[in-house]
Structure formats: structure tokens, C-alpha cells
Amino acid sequence: MDQNTTPAPGLRETKKRETRQLISDQATRLFIERGFEHTTIAEIADAARVAKKTVTNYFPRKEDLALDHQDEFVAALAATVTARGAGETPLTALRHAFLAAVAAQDPVAGFAGQAFTRMIADSPTLTACLRGLHDRREEALTAALAGTTDTPPDDITPRTAAALLGGVHRVLFNRIQELTLAGRANPEIAEVLAREAPRAFDLLTPALAEYGRRP
After folding, report:
1. Are 138 and 166 in contact (CB under 8 A)?
2. CB 87 within 8 A of CB 213
3. Cα(13)–Cα(93) distance, integer angstroms
4. What is the secondary structure of 92-148 as a DSSP string?
């Protein structure tokens, strides 16, 4: 290629994705080795061989480097509820989606491996950030429930339903983390959650068995 030729948009986007992934990978490695609080943005930039400003352009906050699937995590429950089929309730849709995530050992559901999970557990900053993500996920779920049941978002019903459904997901996420930190491998954790998760969702059945069922 001529050195003066501007790369095609597809190539530019590919390079951006590669740079972003490189920065993320190096940041994760350093966070695991040194701890989140003890790793600086400058050290991450050096490891990725980019400018410090490049790091902050891709990841405005340091927490974004460690938890780079935040948007997916926050939107997941709301997206499942919004996409539920005819005759399906939010409880049923979320139950099926969670069990599918367990079967796939999805990192967004909590199957992140012992080193990564320990990195979060050992960091007060990341632990607080994770709690905030759970809160934001519940807020997004409230909006989705309100929108798909033609209910005002400040109504007590979608807010309560989101608290119950979000609470179960929070408990199950924490259960995966607990088993991971105890040294259990992902396949074994998936087996445990495949047994335990239905029991957790069953506790919500008396309250939410018919709530939000689509015609």
C-alpha cells in the first residue's frame, strides 16, 4: 500500500478494535499481577506501547479497563425482557436466559476465572463499581418492565418486580464468584448453578408467575 493512501474505514475500525483489545489485555494482566489500586494508567500505556492519552481515549475511567463489558452487563436483563415472546413472562424469559448463560459459562454471568474474580474481590474500588453495575442493571430492568407492561416507570409494580428479579440475579452472580474463589472450576460451578438457580427463581413464582405475560 502506498504510504500516503488513507486506510479504508474497515481497516481503521479493525486497528481501533485491536488497539482497544491490546490495552484491555495488558491492563487486566497488570491488575491481576499487582492489584487494581497499585497499577497506574501510565504503566498500562507503557505495557501496551501506546500514549497515556490513547488509554484514556478508549477507557475514560480506570475501572473501565477492568470491567470492559459494563454496557452488556447493565443491558442484559432489560434486553431479555424486551425481547420475550408471546405468552412469556419476564420471570420465565429471565430464568431461561440465565440457565443458558450458565450452560455457556458466560463471563458476563460471572464465569470470569479465579484470577480475574480475585482481582475484583481484592479491590475496594472494583467491588464498589460492581455493586453500582448491579444497581444500574436493575434500573434498566425497571424501565423495560414498565415499557412492556404500559406502566409508568415510577409505578411501584415494575420497580418491585425489578428489585425481585434483579436481586435473584445478584445472588446468583455472587454465588458464582463465591465458588470461583473457593477454587471450583467453571464446569463444576455450572453444574452447581444448574441445580441451584431454578430453586432461586422458583421462590419468585408465587409473586411473578403471571406478571407481564405477553398476549
Report:
1. yes
2. yes
3. 35
4. HHHHHHHHHHHHHT-GGGT---HHHHHHHHT-HHHHHHHHHHHHHHHHHHHHHHHHH
- Alpha-carbon distance of 211 to 213, in angstroms, equals 6
User: Any idea what DSSP says for residue 6?
Assistant: P
Do 113 and 180 form a contact (C-beta atoms < 8 A)? yes
Q: CB-side exposure of 38: number of CA atoms within 13 Å?
A: 9
CA 133, 138, 143, 149 dihedral sign is positive
Q: How far apart are CA 27 and CA 119, in angstroms?
A: 12
What domains appear along the chain, each with residue ranges and CATH number?
A: 11-66 (1.10.10.60), 68-209 (1.10.357)
The answer, as to whether pTM is greater than 0.85, is: yes
Per-residue cell: 137 = 442493571
Q: CB–CB of 151/215 below 8 Å?
A: no
106, burial (CB in 10 Å: exposed 0-12, middle 13-18, buried 19+):
middle
Task: Round to whole Å and give the CA distance between 92 and 201.
Answer: 9
Those residues whose C-beta lies under 8 Å from the C-beta of residue 133, and which sit 6 or more positions away, are 67, 70, 73, 74
pLDDT digits (tens, 9 = 90+) for 65-110: 998 889 999 999 999 999 999 999 999 999 999 999 999 999 999 9
